[in-house]
Amino acid sequence: MRYTLTGAGAVVALVLIVVAVGYALPVKHRGEAEATFGATPETVFALITNVEAFPTWRRGVKSVELIRSTDGRKRFRELSGHGPIAYVIESVESSRRLVTRIDDKSLPFGGTWSYELTPTTDGGTRLRITEDGEIYNPVFRFVSRFFVGYDQTIKTYLADVAKKVG
Question: How is domain 2-165 classified at the CATH fold level?
């Protein structure tokens, strides 16, 4: 009985520590990563803006549906292992820059992804992605900061781009 109570107390203490540390972490964070590809900026830009084709090359994206928009901006919903997430394209500079934002206030996280494409001297493209994110749930903040990393999703995305364009 004593071991059971000690074990239960340790679990409760661990949960309280995770929550307390999560609350102490900032809600906002920045994650960045970049990669260089042999494809032209126009090719890479066409790939990352063709949201309907995401399930054909992005790991974990099961489907994408376009969402009706009343303000003229492109909106879409991705369905992945993390559930459905709605996005809006905030700004586009053809073959140079793209900014998307999570468009769902009910999620425990939000923020933007900025994609910057720069031509390389050999005709390729350097793609830099910056996530300016917010994590509202303190447990998610703790896990993201200490176990997942703020740039892990970006690195996975860049690896998927590399696999698609070479």
Answer: Alpha-D-Glucose-1,6-Bisphosphate; Chain A, domain 4 (3.30.530)
